[in-house]
C-alpha cells in the first residue's frame, strides 16, 4: 500500500554505539525509533529543566565544579531558548530528546558535556521528564475543571427556577430546572478537580537519581533535586521507579477520562436539546457547521466532537494497560507508554479547552422548555401532597397513579419551590458547592 | 444449546405494578431482572443500614412518630439478623433487594411499612447501598495494601544485602539485592494504599435523599443521614447523584486494578524465578499443584492466577465504560453497572487476600541467586570508579565497555554497599518508607 | 466486609494428588478453583460428548477393546441423562467437570474408568469442550441474526414509502422512510450472520489429541475424532492448540459484540423515538415498566437494557485480552478465559433472544412521523432539480441554500419515490438483500 | 503547559460556508479539524481513485459528457501524480482531502469541477476511501501472514527433531523440539491469513453512492462503481452504509490484533530464550541495542517492541468502540474513527513487516537447549510405556510419579520420534499445513 512516511534522513548518533555494532538496518531503526523523537518534543522543556537540576545535584556532591555547573546551566538555558524560538529543532538527527541534550552540551562545552550523564540513565531521565509533563497537564486540567465549575455555578444560580422537563429513561418525569441541570455539572466538575488534584499529588514523586533501576555508586543529592523540581516527595526505590512507568501515566489519564466522561454526558444532553424535536437550544453560529450535500443543515459539530472526546483517552488507557503485563525492571516495551500518554493528554486537553466557551455561551429557549412540561409530570407532587396529609407513601402513589390526567396544569415554578429536599431546586445549596470550589481555587493559587 | 439456568420460579411482586399491566412475559422478565437479585445479596446489609437511617430522617422531619421509628428500626434489625443467620433468603421471589425490604416491613408492620419509601426512590436507594459497599471494599483493599507493604518492608530489611541479579530487558544488568526487590513492592503497595484512601474519600458522598434525580417535596434531613452513615460529605445535586452512578464504581475499580497490576508484576517475577532456568524460588508445597498427565510436574498455579488477577477487574472497568455513554438522568442501562462492580470487587479482593500469605511465605535460594551474578555485571561499577577518578562519564563508559571480561569476579556485597545513591542498597531509606506506612496505618485506625 | 460466599463444603478429589501433598489450605483452594465448577456446567454436555469420541479413538488404536468401549459409552450416556434430568449435580465435590467424568467412570466401571484419560490431558479436554460450546453458541447467534434480518426485511417491505425524518447529527436532514430504516438493520444483521458463520468456521478445528501441548506417544486416531465431532478440520500442532486458547474465544465474542453493537444502535433509535419529544413509537405494555416513585411513568426498560447489552461482552473481551500476554504453552492464567467466555456468551445470547420479539412487535406512529417532516428538508431535492436542469452541483447547492424556506410543503411520498439511487427508497433493492439472506439460511439448513 | 503545535496558518476553504457564517473561531476550527488533514494523506490516493470512478458513474447516467469525463480523469491523474511526486501537499490549506480534490478540479477545470460532487456526499466519499484503504491494508497483512507461515514451516521442517524443553506453567514438562515450536506459529499465521482474508471479504462492500445516508434523487450507476473499484458486492442500504462506519474499521483492526497477539506470544518466548538463564538464542547484532549507562549490555529491543506491538491496535479498538454508542445516521463523533484506523493500521503493519526478517534470521543454540532437558522430563514417556504394557493410565501415572528420578537419562530424539500422535514431533503433518498455506497463496495470487 502507498504510505507517505518520512524516514529519518540522516542516521541519528547512538549513545551506546560501540565499534563492533556495524550496519544497522534502516527499517529496523525506524521501527525502534517509532515516533519517539516527535513525542519528545512535548517532553523536551521538561527534560532540559531536569537536566539543569541534575547538574546542580552533581555539583552538590563534587562531581562538577561551581564553574562547570555554571557553564552547563548557561548552555541548557541557551538550548531552552533556542527550542522555544524555533532555532533548535528536535528531529530525526537525534536518537531521542535525551541524546539531543547530551549532544548539545558536548558540542558547546566539549569534554564537560560528557559529564552530564554521570549518575543518571535515560531511564530515570524519561521518567522525570514524563512526570513533569503529566504534572503540568494535570495542573491545566485542574484549572479547566474549576473554571467549568465556576461557569456552571453562575448559570445554575441564574436559572434555578427556570422550568425544564426532568427526564428519566429519556421520558418526561417531573418538573426540573435549567439551574438544577447546571448545578449538577458544577458538582461533577468540582469532584473532577478534586480527583485531578489527588492524582497530581499521587504522581508527584521524584524518580531522578534512580538510574536504570538499581541506583548508582554515587551519593546523589536526591533531596536537592526533589526540592528544586518542587516534587512532593522522593520516589525512593529505584526498581519501583521503573515499575511505576506506565501506571502513573495510566492514573493521570484516568483522571482526565473522568472529566471527559462528564463532558460527554453534558454533550449528550446538548445534542438532544439541539434536535428539532426538543429544540431547547440556541447554539451560536460559530458552534455549527454546514453539510456538503444538504444546503438546509446547521449541525452542532463541536458538541458531537466533545461527546467523542473520551475516546482517544480511553484508547490510550487500553494501550497502556496492554503494555504493562511485564516482569520488573525496564523493558523496551515501556517505550510505548510515551505515545499514548502524549496523545491522550493532548487530545483531552484540547477538548476541555474548547468546552469552556461552549458552556459559557450556549443559550436555552425558556419558552420551549416550559411548553414541554405536561400535566402528568405533577403526579409525584400530588402523591406528596397526600403524604403530607398523612397517607402512607405507597398508598398515595397508587392514588396519584389512578388520577393522572385529572391533576390539571399547575404552576411549574411553584412546584420547583416546593421541592425542598436539600439539593433540589427549592433548596439547591449552591453556597455549599461554591465553598468547595473556592477552597480548591485557593489551594491551587497558594504556593 | 443446552444451558442450565434457573428462571425465577415464582413471579416477583412488582412495586410499580398497576391494575392495567396485565401479563408479563417470562423471558422478558428474566432478561430485565438479570442476576440482580443475586448481586443484591452483596448490597443487602448496606441497604438495610441505609433504610434504618432513612427512617430516622423521616422521623426527624415528622413523617414518622418516635414509636413508628422504633418499630421500623426493630423490624429492620430483625431482618438484618435473619439475613445474617440464613433465615431470610434474598431470591427470585423479590424484584430486588429494595422491594424485599419494603415487603418485609409491610408484612411485619402493616400500613406503617408502606411509609418507608416516602421521600426516596430505588434510584437513591441503590446509590447509597452501592456506595457503602464500595467504601467497605476500599477499606479492605487499603488494609490489605498496608499489610502487604509491611511484609515487604520486613523482608526488604532482612535481605537488603542478599545479592540477586538486577535485570533490564530480562538481561542481567548489575548486581541487585533481594531486599531491594522487596522494598520496591513495599513502596508500590504504600502508593496503592494512598490511592485507595484518596479514592475512598472521593466517593464518600451521601446520595440518599436525591430520590429519582430531582429531589422531593419534603425538607428531608440529609445532614442527619450524612452523619449517621458516616459520609464525608453530602452529594448535593440530585441530577449529579444519578450521573455519578457508574463513574464512582469505575474509580473504585481503578484503584483496585492498580493494586492488582502491582501484584501482576510481582507474580511475573516469581513465575520466572520459579522456572528451572532461574530456580531462585522455593515454593511451599501448598502453593503448587500437579498435572493430570505429567507425573513429574509441580506447578506454581497460585502465582499464575495472581498474575491473571487484574483481568476480571479490567474487564469490569470496560463493561462500566461501555455503559456510561448516556444523557443525564437515570436510564435502565445503569442497572448493568451493578454486575461489574460486584464481580470486579469480589474477584479482586479474593486475589489480594491470597497474596498476603504467599508473599510472606515464599522463600528464595540465596546460593542460586549469587551464582547467577556474572563478572560483566560489574562493568558499571568499573565505569563509576573511573568517574570517581575524574574521567567524564561518557569516556568512562566506553573504557569500561572495552575491557568487559577483564574485570574479574568481585564481591557482590561490597558492590551493593557502594551503591549509595538514595534508595539504592547502600542507602535504601527503608525508614522513610516505614514512616509513610505508619502514617497510613495510624490514620486508618483513628476514628 | 460482609460477603456471603459458599466455600466448597467437602474437599474435591484431586487427580494429581500424590502422597506427599499434605494439607491444602482452604482459602487457597477456593481461590484456585474460582467458580470453575459452576462454569463447567455449561461445558459439561460437550465434555461428555468429546469423552465418548475420545474413547472411540482409543478403541480404534487398540487401547480399549470393543467391549470396553461399549461399557464406557453406556456409562457416559447414563451420565448425560442423569445430568439432563438433574439426577447428577456438578458441584464442589469435584475439582472440575473433567475430573467428574473420570470419577463417574471409575465409580461405575472400576479399573476400566482409569483408562479414559489415556492419551489426553485436561488441557485438550477443556479446549475441545470450549470449542464445541462456542460452536453451538455461534450457531444460535447465526440463527438469531437471520431471524432478525427476516423480520426487518418484512417490515422494510411493508413501510418503504412510509415517511419518517432522516437525521444526521440528530438534525432533521431529508425525508426518509420507516422501511429504509428497517432495511438498514436487515442488511446489518445479514452481515452479522456472515461474520458469525465465518467465525464459526475459523474456530472449527479439533484440538482433541494434543494433550498438554506436546502430543503423546500414541498414534491417536485424530482423524476419527475430527469426523465424529463434525469439526471442519484438525488443529494440527499441539503447541498451537494451547496457544489458541483465549484467542478463539475472543474471536467468537467479537462476532457476538458486532451483532450487539447493531442492536445497540437500533435501541438508541427506539429510545429516542420513544421520548415524548419524538413520540414515534407505540411500545406494547409488556415492554414497559413503572417507577417506584413517579406514578405517571411508563419506561421502555427493555430497550435500554438492549442498548447496554454489548457491555458485558466488551468487558469479557477486555478480560480475555488482559490474560493473553503470555509465553507459549499452558499457564494457569488461561483458566481465567473460561469465565469471560461463558458470561459473555450467556449475556449476549439472552439479549439477542429478547430482541426478536421486540423488533417484530414494536409499532410506529405514522402520523407523528409525517408531521415531523418540515419544508426545509426538501432543500436537497430542490438542488437536485436544478442539477437535472444542468446546473453544476456546487452552484445548485448554493442556490438551494439561499431559497430555503420558500420551497413550500411538498409530498413526502413523491420525494421518496424520486430517490432512485440504488438502495434508496425509490429503488431499495430488497430482493438483493433477500437473496443474500436466503443463501445464508439455506447453507445453515443443509447438512 | 508548553505545547508545540502547528495551527493551520491559513484558514481552509469551507465547502459548506454560506454568506452568513461570519468569523470562525480559530481554536474551535482547530479542534474540529483535529489532525484530519494529516490522516487524509493516507486516504488521498484512494479518494482520488474513487473520485475517478464516481465521475465515470456520472457519465454513465448522462450527468457528464464523454468529454467532461475525459477532462476530469486527466485532471485527477495529474493530481495523483503530483501527490506521489510531492508536488502537491495535502495540508492545512484544505478542510480535508475531499475538499482538496474538488478544489483542484475547480481550479483546473472551472465550472466543470463543480460537478464532481453531484450525487455524492463527503459521507460516502470518506466511507469508500476508508474501505479501499482497509482493503489494501488487509491485503498486506494477508501477504505478511503467509510469508511468516512459510518461513516458520521451513524452519519447522529443518528442526523437527532438534530437542528443546517443552514448558507448561514455565516449568519444564516434556521433551519438545524447535521444529514443533516453529510449526505451532506456522499454523497460527495460517489461521491469521484465513481470518484476514475473511475479514477483507466481509468489509468488501461498496458504499459509494449512498450520499449522506439517504441516497439521492439520481439513478446512480452503483453497479458500475462496484465493478470498477473491484468490490465484492454493493453495500445496498444508505443508512446501513453510515452505520457501518467504525464497525468495519473495528473488524479490520481485530484481524490485525489477532496476528499481533500471535507475534506477542512468539516475542515472549524469544525474550525468555534470550535471557542468560535460558540462553537458547543467538540474536544477530542488528537486533540488539546498547544501554546508555551499562556498558556490558546487549538488549533484544526489537523483540520487546514486537511484544508491545498489539498495544496501539488494541488501544485503537477501544477508541473505536468508545465512539460507536450512537443513534443511526452520521454524527460528527464518527470523524474520530479515522485516527484510530490509520494509527492502528500503520503501527501494526510496521511491526509485522519487521518481524519477517527477525523470524527468518534468529538462531538457536542447539547444545544449550539439549542441556536443558532433565531426566524427570521423561516421566510421561515412562507412564506411556506402562500403558503400552496394558496398565490403566491413572495407575501408570502414579507409578511413574513415584519412580521419578530413577528413570535415568534417555535419548531425547528417540523420545521425540515415539511421540506419534498426529501433530506431535513423530508425526508433525507439516504437509497438511503446507497444503492449507499453498491454497491461501494461490487464492491471493489469482485475479
State mean pLDDT of chain A (0 to 100 scale): 91
Largest sheet, strands/sense/barrel of chain A: 2 strands, antiparallel
> N- to C-terminal separation of chain A?
55 Å
Oligomer: homotetramer
Q: Structural class per helix/strand content of chain A?
A: mainly alpha
Unreliable segments of chain A (pLDDT under 50, ≥5 consecutive)? 1-11, 17-23
- Biggest interface: chains and residue counts? C-D, 114 and 114 residues
Q: What is the molecular shape of chain A?
A: elongated
| Beta strand count of chain A | 6
What order do the SSEs of chain A take from the amino end to the carboxyl end, as H and E?
HHHHHEEHEHEHHEHHHEHHHHH
Protein model, in words:
The structure is a homotetramer of 447-residue chains. Chain A has 447 residues and is mostly helical. Chain A is 59% helix and 5% strand. The first copy, chain A, has helices spanning 26-33, 36-60, 66-84, 97-109, 122-158, 178-203, 222-228, 238-243, 247-274, 301-307, 310-323, 338-361, 366-371, 379-388, 393-403, 412-418, 430-445; strands spanning 163-168, 171-177, 205-206, 233-234, 281-282, 363-364. In chain A, helix 7 links the parallel strand 3 and strand 4. Chain A is elongated and about 90 Å long. Residues 1-11 and 17-23 of chain A have low confidence and may be disordered. The interface between C and D is large, with 114 and 114 residues.
Amino acid at each position: 500500500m502507498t504510505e507517505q512516511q518520512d524516514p529519518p534522513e540522516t542516521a541519528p548518533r547512538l549513545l551506546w554505539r560501540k565499534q563492533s555494532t556495524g550496519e544497522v538496518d534502516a527499517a529496523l531503526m525506524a521501527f525502534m525509533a517509532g515516533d519517539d523523537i516527535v513525542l519528545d518534543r512535548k517532553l523536551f522543556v521538561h527534560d532540559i529543566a531536569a537536566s539543569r537540576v541534575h547538574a546542580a545535584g552533581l555539583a552538590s556532591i563534587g562531581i562538577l565544579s561551581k564553574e562547570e555547573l555554571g557553564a552547563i546551566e548557561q548552555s541548557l538555558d541557551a538550548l531552552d531558548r533556542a527550542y522555544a524560538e524555533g532555532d533548535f529543532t528536535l528531529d530525526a538527527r537525534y536518537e531521542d530528546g535525551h541524546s539531543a541534550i547530551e549532544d548539545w552540551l558536548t558540542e558547546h562545552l566539549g569534554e564537560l558535556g560528557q559529564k552530564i550523564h554521570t549518575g543518571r540513565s535515560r531511564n530515570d531521565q524519561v521518567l522525570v521528564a514524563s512526570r513533569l509533563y503529566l504534572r503540568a497537564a494535570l495542573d491545566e486540567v485542574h484549572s479547566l475543571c474549576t473554571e467549568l465549575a465556576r461557569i456552571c455555578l453562575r448559570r445554575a444560580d441564574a436559572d434555578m427556577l427556570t422550568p425544564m422537563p426532568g427526564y428519566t429513561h429519556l421520558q418526561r418525569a417531573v418538573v426540573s430546572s435549567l439551574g438544577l441541570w447546571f448545578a449538577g455539572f458544577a458538582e461533577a466538575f468540582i469532584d473532577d478537580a478534586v480527583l485531578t488534584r489527588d492524582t497530581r499529588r499521587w504522581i508527584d514523586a521524584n524518580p531522578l537519581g534512580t538510574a536504570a533501576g538499581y541506583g548508582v555508586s554515587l551519593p546523589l543529592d536526591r533531596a536537592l533535586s526533589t526540592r528544586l523540581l518542587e516534587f512532593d516527595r522522593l520516589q525512593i526505590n529505584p526498581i519501583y521507579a521503573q515499575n511505576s512507568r506506565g501506571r502513573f501515566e495510566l492514573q493521570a489519564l484516568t483522571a482526565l477520562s473522568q472529566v471527559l466522561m462528564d463532558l460527554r454526558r453534558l454533550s449528550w444532553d446538548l445534542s438532544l436539546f439541539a434536535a428539532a424535536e426538543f429544540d431547547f437550544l440556541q447554539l451560536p453560529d460559530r458552534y455549527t457547521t454546514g453539510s456538503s450535500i444538504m444546503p438546509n443543515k446547521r449541525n452542532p459539530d463541536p458538541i458531537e466532537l466533545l461527546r467523542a472526546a473520551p475516546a482517544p483517552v480511553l484508547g490510550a488507557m487500553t494501550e497502556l494497560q496492554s503494555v504493562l503485563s511485564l516482569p520488573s525492571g525496564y523493558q523496551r516495551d515501556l517505550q510505548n507508554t510515551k505515545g499514548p500518554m502524549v496523545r491522550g493528554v493532548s487530545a483531552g486537553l484540547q477538548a476541555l479547552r474548547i468546552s469552556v466557551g461552549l458552556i459559557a455561551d450556549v443559550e436555552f429557549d425558556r419558552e420551549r422548555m416550559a411548553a414541554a412540561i405536561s400535566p402528568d409530570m405533577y403526579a409525584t407532587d400530588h402523591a406528596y401532597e397526600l403524604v403530607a396529609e398523612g397517607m402512607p407513601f405507597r398508598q398515595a402513589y397508587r392514588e396519584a397513579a389512578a388520577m393522572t390526567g385529572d391533576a390539571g396544569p399547575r404552576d411549574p415554578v411553584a412546584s420547583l419551590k416546593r421541592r425542598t429536599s436539600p439539593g433540589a431546586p427549592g433548596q439547591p445549596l449552591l453556597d455549599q458547592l461554591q465553598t468547595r470550589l473556592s477552597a480548591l481555587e485557593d489551594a491551587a493559587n497558594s504556593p
